[in-house]
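hiii, so i know i said id send this last week but things got crazy w the move. better late than never?? heres the sequnce for the chain we talked about at the cafe, plus the structure i predicted for it. fair warning i was half asleep when i ran it
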Amino acid sequence: MNRPRGMTRREAVAVSVAALGGAAVMTAGLPTAAAAAPLTAAEADRPWQDRRKSAARRADALLEAMTFEEQVVLVTAVEVADSKPLEHLGIPAMTRVDASDGLRGDTGVTAFPAPNALAATFDTDLAEEYGTAIGVEARGKGWNVLLGPTLDIDRNPRNGRESEAYGEDPLVSGLMGAAVAKGFQKNDVIAQLKHFTVYNQEAGRNSLDVIVSERALREVYYPAFEHAIRDGGALSVMGSYPKVNGVYACQDEHIITALKQDLGLKGYLGTDYYPSGDRVEEIKAGVDSAALTPDTPKEAFTDGRIPKERTTDAARRILYALFASGAYDNPLPTVPAATVTTDAHQALARITGEQATVLLKNAGGLLPLSKRKTIAVIGPAGKDAMTGVEGSSYVDPGDFTTAVDAIRAKAGAGRVLFSQGSLGDVALPTISGDVFTAPDGSPGLHAEFFAGEFFAGDPLAATTAANVDFRWGNPVSGLPSTWSARWTGRITPPTTGWVRFSSLLSGAAKLVVDGVTVFDNSRFLWDSFFGPKECALGGVTQLTAGKPVDITVEYTTKDAGFYGPSMKLCWQPDSLIPAAVETAKKADVAVVFVNNYTGEAIDRDDLALPGDQNQLIDAVAAVNPDTVVVLNTSGPMLMPWLGRAKSVLQAWYQGAATGTSIANILYGDAEPGGRLPVTFPANEEQGPSTYRGGKNDSANGGITYDEGIYVGYKWYDKHHAKPLFPFGYGLSYTSFSHDHLRVTDRGRGDLAAEVSVEVRNTGRRTGSDVVQVYIGHLPTNVDTPAKKLAGFAKVTLKPGERRTVSVPVTRRTLSYWDESENRWVTPSGKVSVYVGSSAADVEYAGTVTVK
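okay and structure toks below
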């Protein structure tokens, strides 16, 4: 989470910098020395301004010219005004923006598809273009530090920030993150990778203690950062919130040393916004920038608590990043542009969305659709679509083209029938009191309030309440800090059919209607700080019009967040499903859009589609056999209706491309180029263990990563479990063959082997294939995965076209982390190599001999 610092936009960019002519030449995302030129008088007097010198030498020269007090300013500066004492040295103020998929908080920008959608493209060239476009827009808006990309491994798909990163595999995450970081830094800005490390859930994130092995850290959670630093040139890293084996990540000298020494960070380490822990201990452990911790005590730098050499090292690292990125030499615009998005950037968002869309099922070749057919568009396919993850990565999509409008433009308005069908994953209206009857026959509900969270003892208070509706405080006076409440009575629905109930909640609540538990869970809070929507907890049950049924609502302050206890009991008594069914009957094809809300501070309760969306799909598919489901979701969902839907598309969150890309896919004007960067579980029990502790910031819960290195598809192989859809899976509108598989030992430096395969398009349409290379068990008694992704390559081919692609296999891929020796070990012997189209669909290609 990263909040604005309170600066105005003009203050954020009105930075006085020594403006020197000439642009840096870019290599691998980092500027190299410019062509030699005569030394100016200013450069001779101020050697750090000599662009012919390396970033390291320039940083040393400037550091020597700074007073210790100026070094402290550089390390602790938060607001633009804080950097004013450094202006005479030409040091620009560092302005920061969340930028995982565009610029959070700005307008006139491009909302790109979410990072896990980008990961689904398996296209590093596209990822670099994506990063470059965001970097261009950031400079135009006056930002020179981009908080992103996010490299958190998707350990559990219930994570509220799942869609902000690049999936479950360290290699995919690392290569895609490196490409985005490289794209960012082409624009004289600093990429700040986040979050280091094991930040894999929102529940209890500020106090959570993650117990994880050193081997899992090295093999699962560190590699993406190393790729982005070494291959992408990333110059900064953001520390994470949780504890790692008992120590807060931002004051854990062990992992910070690994970051700087082993993973190669030459730039600086910052914190996330106000992490728990001790500010002085953070700096001492290796945090270099206190920009997101305004409460860092400045006197600690001079009273002996923080060693002077630690301050000097921190300042040098920040200076290095400023020089290496080009941010020092290339001032930001004096006035930020109102609009920085362009037609080219909007087109890039659309192309990314198309290439990210995964075709999960296409029975009978239903897709692509004929424009001559009548199509029923059902579900949240308008402005109510989910365009992005809420919280620190939410980007305003502007006036985007909706899916229903894009489909009308393709097929003609006369062939498109629309029915809402479901409101999707949204907050519902509060239930009014006129449908409730208390046990004594009076209007409303009987309410009892108890001390503590367990409904124990005599009630502290009892009353009749019109409904359940209180926010940021107690519904009656005189309650203690922890309390519980129960409302009882009867409810009379106005219509027959599916009735949807929900709650906006801060705390824990259970709703039982006519003997059916509709929901029973908790929320830390119900919004994600930034973004227009709210996160509801809910479910459905079938009721009969005019027939009163018993209702019980229980609430406790357990898990309530920092805003205080809150609950609104909400509903949608009139189902939209019957009207959608009638619409579906009139069409040749029905396309049902469904969605889910995710966001910062709010993990998903389960993997089910929220609300009445499963019931909607079932009902539509029962009357229209040609039903297509479009999943506008954060990630994996359970699909109890999969056997009844003819085609299924995983669309993710697509930002400004939400409507246009899907319409192009549906009608074949683009191909679904995506492959799954995460495994889709077949049930709630599959995958690594889930967190069972408290959800609020002071919960002090813990979780043990007892799966070790077996995250994602490796867990499924280890446990012989069959997922709903495997990692790497995705269908196409055409078909491909893989022939002439060959493994060639190389043994040059880190290159151990090359795997080549001839890919041929055996279908009738142009399409793309993602060649995936996996290695088998290593030749050692140490437990190693049955399959591990060693590399991938995306290739686009015309019908009948063939091409040989080569995928390198590195020695690191053929190694494991030996905890007893605290180093990487590459065992000698033969390792099996597989080539395929998913983690579950591979064929033996040969072996690589490791020496």
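btw The mean pLDDT is 94. thought thatd interest u
miss u guys!!
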